[in-house]
């Protein structure tokens, strides 16, 4: 009898975490490494948020809380949804967890049965398929090609829906491509979903505030109120407020689903960190200046990276609408040999050779379900990005 679970054999470790760890190991060994793998703002958490956490510690707010969030935070989340998304939720319709990932995982565990299908647009965040598999479901992929801005068409979505489809996972702006759907593009997808009442929508809005060039963010239940009763609108403070390590994610949805999610959480982690919750209250209720300031910096970095990568032989890099990622194609590099003698047969061999020969760490596209590409996180300094792009250009110029 095998000791490890058969379910565990269905999933793989996170490639993004693997790349980040590899870059860290090389740095510790003395290599000059520029890590562009982690999806994490390089800015510090705003001072008002840190001070709120300190005040919570000093006030002794260090005990267990309600399993799925303190009342103050749930109230702040309701206000945020109403203010920014035009969505009306009560505290009973809100769940808070230790990061956005836990919210998604809890929802899938609470709802999926063997044979249930979950539609996931590709390229996708690396964790979506594996969370579906861990929860006993079957991921179904719909590809958005680079020529379409990495966005899926309504026709492709409709073709993927079957009687077994339970969820459609929607992520805009997207990790890894940065693609964001306009209101009109999203309405075309929600029109499809309205024709299939068995399909629920899991909208991952984590990069909501990181949109550029006047782009207007919208979320499915906002665009199509008819989907409100079967949509879980997910978000968090990690990206918007540079609070990745604080681990606070949240969601709004139908009360029965929220209760089921709370039941899963009550028997796994129980409540999120109490201090992080009080910090998140300040993040949502306090001054919002940081969001606009960071958006300016990220847009500048996007433009820097896109322009630089498009001068690299064999690389084509579209300009994304949001998030802090670019997802260039390396189709023109395939079949070549690097200056160090590596055969570039796919995006994984490209990323491996790039790291070993130049010290630039990126994540290969196969991890996100669309090749031949790689992902760069430009959530780092302008100087580091400039140097990294120069190394990538030199690497590409050395391909024969």
UniProtKB/TrEMBL annotation:
Database matches in InterPro entries: Aminotransferase_I/II_large, AspAT/PAT-like, NHTrfase_class1_PyrdxlP-BS, PyrdxlP-dep_Trfase, PyrdxlP-dep_Trfase_major, PyrdxlP-dep_Trfase_small
One Pfam family cited in the UniProt record for this chain: Aminotran_1_2
Domain Aminotransferase class I/classII large per the UniProt entry, residue ranges: 32-392
E.C. code: 2.6.1.-
Highest taxon of source: Bacteria
Subunit structure comment from the entry: Homodimer.
Keyword annotations: Aminotransferase, Pyridoxal phosphate, Transferase
Cofactor(s) needed by this chain: pyridoxal 5'-phosphate
Catalytic activity: L-aspartate + 2-oxoglutarate = oxaloacetate + L-glutamate
A GO molecular function held by the record: L-aspartate:2-oxoglutarate aminotransferase activity
The protein's name in its UniProt record: Aminotransferase
BP GO annotations: amino acid metabolic process
UniProt keyword annotation of Transferase present: yes
First-tier enzyme category under EC: transferase
Organism annotation: Rhodobacter xanthinilyticus
Family: Belongs to the class-I pyridoxal-phosphate-dependent aminotransferase family.
């Amino acid at each position: 009898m095998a000791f490890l679970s058969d379910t565990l054999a269905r999933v793989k470790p996170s490639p993004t975490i693997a790349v980040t760890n590899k870059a860290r190991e090389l740095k510790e060994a003395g290599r000059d490494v520029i890590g562009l793998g982690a999806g994490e703002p390089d800015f510090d958490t705003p001072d008002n948020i840190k001070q709120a956490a300190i005040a919570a510690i000093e006030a002794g707010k260090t005990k267990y809380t309600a399993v799925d969030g303190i009342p103050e935070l749930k109230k702040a989340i309701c206000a945020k949804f109403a203010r920014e998304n035009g969505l009306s939720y009560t505290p009973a319709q809100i769940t808070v967890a230790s990061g956005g990932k836990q919210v998604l995982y809890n929802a899938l565990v609470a709802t999926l049965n063997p044979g249930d299908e979950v539609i996931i647009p590709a390229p996708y965040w690396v964790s979506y398929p594996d969370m579906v598999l861990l929860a006993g479901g079957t991921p179904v992929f719909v590809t958005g090609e680079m020529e379409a801005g990495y966005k899926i068409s309504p026709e492709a979505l409709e073709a993927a829906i079957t009687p077994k489809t339970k969820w459609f996972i929607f992520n805009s702006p997207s990790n890894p491509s940065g693609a964001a759907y306009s209101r009109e593009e999203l309405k075309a997808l929600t029109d499809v979903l309205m024709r299939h009442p068995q399909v629920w929508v899991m909208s991952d809005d984590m990069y909501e505030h990181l949109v550029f060039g006047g782009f207007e963010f919208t979320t499915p239940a906002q665009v199509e109120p008819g989907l409100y009763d079967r949509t879980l609108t997910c978000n968090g403070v990690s990206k918007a407020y540079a609070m990745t390590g604080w681990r606070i994610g949240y969601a709004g949805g139908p009360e029965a689903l929220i209760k089921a999610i709370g039941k899963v959480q009550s028997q796994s982690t129980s409540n999120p960190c109490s201090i992080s919750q009080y910090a998140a209250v300040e993040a949502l209720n306090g001054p919002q200046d940081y969001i606009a300031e960071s958006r300016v910096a990220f847009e500048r970095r996007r433009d820097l990276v896109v322009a630089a990568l498009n001068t690299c032989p064999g690389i084509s890099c579209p300009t994304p609408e949001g998030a802090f990622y670019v997802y260039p194609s390396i189709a023109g590099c395939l079949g070549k040999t690097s200056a160090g003698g590596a055969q570039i047969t796919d995006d994984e061999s490209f990323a491996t050779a790039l790291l070993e020969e130049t010290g630039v760490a990126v994540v290969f596209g196969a991890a996100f379900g669309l090749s031949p590409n790689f992902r760069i996180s430009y959530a780092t300094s302008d100087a580091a990005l400039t140097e990294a792009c120069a190394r990538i250009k030199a690497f590409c110029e050395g391909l024969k």
